[in-house]
Amino acid sequence: MKITPSDICGVAGILPTPATPDADKWQTDNSVNFSETSRMTDLVVEAGTDIILTTGTFGECATLTGTELKEFVSCVVDTVARRRLVFAGVTTLNTRDTIRRGQELVKVGADGLFIGRPMWLAMDDRAIVRFYKDIAEALPGVPVIVYDNPIAFKGKISREAYLQIAAIPEMVAAKHVGGPSLESDALAVGENCRILPLLSDWLRMAKAHPDLMKAAWTGSIACAPSPLNALARHIRERDWDAAAPVSEKCQWAEAAMFAGGDLAKFMDYSIQIGHLRFASAGLIVPGPSRPPYLDLPDEYRAGAIECGQRWASLEKEFGSVLAAT
To answer: pTM for the complete prediction?
Structure first.
């Protein structure tokens, strides 16, 4: 089946990579907890999540070995068992490694790839577009979700670059962090590439542009899939009145993890914060983070724990509602 932007609808939930108890030691050869990976993946799918993404930032693409990445994605793919689309994250420091890892993940069954550009040095528009053209040339027909994070990748993808990227058939969607360019980027590329807003921006954007904003991304799917998927259902039905209180509750839960409301400061410790909030939410056992991203300053801890607890309360509320319907 050829995957196009029209197939990217609903919640794109990004999974963490559950770790073994000794994952924080550099001597560990395989730090992936496969039994917990399978349990987590099944929970998220059974809760109704539309699309599964793996190995982004807090999913620790940067800290997994090549073998761990391949085996983790294989476990996710086997657990999903074609019930949902799986886009496997494969971001490296150069084009050739990204392509080679991408080829391996497609072979183990990933439906598509989730790819950020190399970030050792900042890349201008010409280099960014060439990078994604090279990916498409090396992996023809493999759908790609572009990872656009200005902090992680040292710059925003410009509207002009987006227009060129959207003209590449393999580039079916882009994970967008929001901000003032969200609406203009989405309108610029139109149906050629599905711009995915952060879930907290989704309702506002979907009300304004319901035919374009048919999907959103979240990094909290392994904290509480039930409220997130409830929001997706209301937006899909264009029931804005029902969606509004759910969206407000999800924003309330998410807000706690941003120290002082500063996204840049959060990004410095997003892996460690992720492990703490997943553990606090209690749906999965994330295990420790992997080196070198191990320590978390005290000022981030309370917010990460509070975030997880808020999501746990919403999962209890909405999981009960869904079970009763």
So the answer is: 0.96
pLDDT digits (tens, 9 = 90+) for 44-97: 999 999 999 999 999 999 999 999 999 999 999 999 999 999 999 999 999 999
How many angstroms separate the Cα of 77 from the Cα of each of 43, 87, 109?
14, 9, 6
Strands (E), 116-243: 144-147, 171-175, 194-196, 215-218
Alpha helices in 256-297 (DSSP H): 263-268, 270-281
Q: Are 280 and 309 in contact (CB under 8 A)?
A: yes
Q: What 3-state class would DSSP assign to 67?
A: helix
DSSP state at residue 27: T
Catalytic residue list: 175
Residues 80 and 45 sit within 8 Å (Cβ to Cβ):
yes
Peptide bond into 292 cis (omega under 30): yes
Query: Do 154 and 93 contact (CB within 8 A), yes or no?
Result: no
Tokens of 80: 């999903």
Which amino acid is residue 264, in one-letter code?
Answer: A
- On the CB side of 218, CA atoms within 13 Å amount to 30
Judge whether 130 and 95 are in contact, CB under 8 Å.
Answer: no
Assess contact for 144 and 135: CB atoms under 8 A.
yes
- Residue 229 CA to residue 153 CA, distance in Å, equals 29
CA distance 159 to 190: 12
